[in-house]
Structures
1.
Amino acid sequence: MKDAIVLILSYSSSPNIEIRTIKEVNLKGGTVLDGFPSIGLINAIASGCFVHSLKNELVAVLDSLAFPALSVIYNGTPNFPARIYANENLKLAFLISELNLDQSMYYYVSKTILQWAKKNECELVISAAGMPTEISNSSAKKSKIQDIYAVASTKKAQEKLEKAEIVQLSSGSVTGIPALLLNEGSWMNFDVIVLLTKVIKDVSDFRAAAAISEAVMKLLPDASCDINSLIKEAEIIEKNLREARLEQPNSGSNVYR
């Protein structure tokens, strides 16, 4: 690995999040897909599916003194627990993380994502969140793919949803990192879309991630995710995420299936 170019994003009286650039890429006009787990694993699994399905390069890693001390081993190689992959041809970037962050870090992570997106001249950030529901497991199995809703930070982003024929949420709430991305995106007049799907009791998050992935492909026709293999991949991803969390001291208040 070549010497990394270091960009430190600092906030007064707050933890530094360091972005170590491995490779400069041209992502002008592109999209960043947020894969940081916050409330559930939906966006982490969906982002991981696109990384596995597309030809991507590792272009940066994120680090902070506030992050748990963790190295994630894949195929015998150590990895930082927060990474950025990119496909320069498709102008797509994917954030992948196994971190079990305390909720106090959500604000700084969301700011970092948006600042990195702006620095690389991206035009859109897509994230995802789950909506708890009382629907039973048996009822959920009647439909192959779950319903998707969405909310956008700007009028331009709302038009993207209309073009993709994705139903927009008229009222409700969003939590976690996706909520902060929406708020900050609205404040900055930067396009952020958060895709929402129901989180069903006793149903693995892969089901919701499959629905999210299909919605992403409607918004980004050049992106591809192997939905059929997502079930198998998700089982591995969920296992790795759970094992990583067992090694981290701060379990937070999140509950993962």
Note: The longest strand covers residues 124-133.
2.
Amino acid sequence: MSRAGFAALLAALLLAACTSLPPPAADSPTSTAALDPALRERLLQIDPEQVSDEQVRQVLARGPTPRIVNLHGGIFPVHLVMESFSRFLVDMGYPEARLRHPGHGRLSHSPYESSLEIAGLLAWYYEQDGLMPMMVGHSQGGIQLVKVLYLLAGQGPAEIAVWNPLTGQAEPRTQIVDPYSGRPRPVVGLKIRYAAVVGSGGAALLLPNQWEMVGRLQAIPDSVGSFDGFALQVDLIAWDVPGSQAGYRPLGTAQVRNVRLPDSSSHVMVAALAPLASDPAVRAWINAYRPGRPPGPPPPTEVPLENLVFAAEVWHGLKKHWVLEAQHALRTPRAAAP
């Protein structure tokens, strides 16, 4: 991206920040008991690898929807990039209420927040919703994401307090009641279904709050089922050029995938995806995208396409694991409420 293009996009993000998103629609139901039988059957028949726009809006968004916890980078005003990312998800059909923090309404978390609080927050969401959240991190936010994965995997304090987002405080307990078994279980040991990071590493690892991740960032623990690591072809901020890094790898059972993005993407703006959802033809291209298959040529459009591949890849991953989490919730009996 040219300097002029970068400046124009940053100005657009700042302008967008001055106007809030429209009032969020009603939250997606997390209780599966009262779900319409016809809707339930349609949801169970969705192929996680091939999710259409109609299925997103008419089926998935009306059923059990896990929260997405976004983590932005650390330099002001890069949080606006993750706000653009959230706007993209909403315009693609993801329920906005499942993106917003239920306490103060923000759309992403700072990498300077306590990783212990974020780990405790994930446990609170799972207990309340019966759905395991998904996570996406950009730049230093991706480092923080992996740090949280280590905490959930038990490579940190032996006990982590449950964090209540409504009160903004830790609760006096380190266990939740599992919504499926009805039994207590600790925060440590929870496993989320999907996480993705983009442009993470490099200079941010020199910051004191991230020193502990030096040498550990690209080794992914078993506290996540599926992990996508996105890297730019050349990223001087993340110290990443072809051949410079081995890429992300699993420490055990996590399914880890490394994706190199086109050199048209820039480190700061790679997650600024909102403009892509404004063009119906571009939305259709993104929804039809399948990782590992040669994509067709992008449609003619005036919308900037620098970040098109990242948008299609991460949206496919989120849709896929949204389906898997919703289908798991429908097929697995829950314990009676205490």
Note: The two ends are 55 Å apart (CA to CA).
3.
Amino acid sequence: MTTLKRYKMTVAYDGTDYFGWQVQQGCASVAQTLQDSFARVFNKTIKLYAASRTDAGVHALGQTAVFSVDIDITTADMIRAWTNVLPPAIVIRSIEVVAPDCNVHQNIITKTYWYHFFTMRPLPFTQRYGWYYRHTVDMAKLQQCLEVFVGTHDFRSFSTGDDRGTDTIRRIDKVGVEFVPEYNVYRITISGPKFLKYMIRRIVGACIEVASRKNLDVAVLRQVLDAKNPEHILPNAPAKGLVLYQIEYDVVR
């Protein structure tokens, strides 16, 4: 009799054509695509539990998820067979056997996200992975804007606004912006243990807006943050520029 095993996988995907990670009725999602393809290959049903529910249009290089299945196969053969039926937009980077109670939401040290934006019209091959922002951005000011959010704060002003009564206190450990010459793109890096829905995109949109307007001071961001009110006029950055880069754990299981 085959023993039920718990597996942890790392997966990368281009989220352009998906309505996010989470399974949704009548919509193409990354999780549904993975589950359906597994069933076709192995004639087994699995349910994936991911560390992050990326939104529609958001990409990933290091999404992690767990599933359990009773199957007698090596992880190398599982990856090989599973990959053969996956669309090019989804790549399984690794699979390992873990403890039966492994939970990808526990023991997280940090999640690192990238946000990419272009200041010049991008090439067709890269445009779907970044926001083309047509106004001049003061990069030194942008760094100052991002640093407003470092530390532990109530991020209600940068949430969806649909989370009344829930905990909106989060911690950002590190932020930065750099130019990546091979793609002619600017990359914002944000790291922390946990984020609210739309939080990063709302922060990025607000920071880029302030950094591109001489009549707006960095202090505006502090005022909006302190107001704890998501109904402000600062913009939300498009999903296409966001990438879940990496999730680090303090326990390898």
Note: The mean pLDDT is 95.
4.
Amino acid sequence: MRKIVGLIGHPLEHSLSPAMHNAAFQQLGIDYEYVPFEVLPKDLEEALTGLRALHLKGFNVTVPHKESVIPYLDEVTKIAEDIGAVNTVKIEDDKLIGYNTDGPGFIESLKQDAKFEPKGKKVVILGAGGASRAVAIVLAEAGAKTITLSDVIESKAKLLSDRLCALFGETAYHVLINSPELQKSIEQADLLVNASPIGMYPKVNESPLPENIKLNPKLLVYDLAYNPAETKLLKTAKAAGAKTCSGLGMLVRQGAEAFTIFTGEEAPVEVMRKAVEAELASQ
């Protein structure tokens, strides 16, 4: 009998996950199908009861449910608990077990796609929302020397830096987005990550970085945005002589992590990447 895995969130019309996972199932010849389920916030608890009753193998979770799903789960992994968000749920022995593959997917992409080892490095992260939390937590776990956070809402950056310090010790700081302190942090950094939505389609002419902030050529600039493939930030970084990496790698590798959780099989990463690229090209 065909096994079903899925995706819950709202809205889902532009999700790349069904194409990515179904291409992987087809490549490995396993009888799975990935199905999107549009779930409004008011229906979340009822939807989870239904998914459990239907004996799905698991499902991914996207906005706006990554945090609100947690109280309804039977177990949550430590990394998902530290991040405070779940994006993958496995259904096993009638239990809902929550994972976060965003963070591990980012680290895997950083090491494999950008050939960057975060241990002992200085990092600046733009944005302090859910994506930033995942990235910051795994970078701290991987041994980053310092993590400096900056967000247009200063209180969010302070809250996240305080959380990192509580979990990992005095390794995190926050600075104002348009400040000499941000410029100084970037000058000293090895890695700059854009974890904000600024610069992603349709606002392709925007950058999360104020124009007066200069980049140095020794930086790796990693933009979690993947549409467009080269954001304004990445173009600026390339012009400054810095190395760049788009968020497509993180998208694919977090999906590959989820694929393995669902199936127990090693994910065909390149097949998943090509499926995502083809889907983006068709949109």
Note: The mean pLDDT is 96.
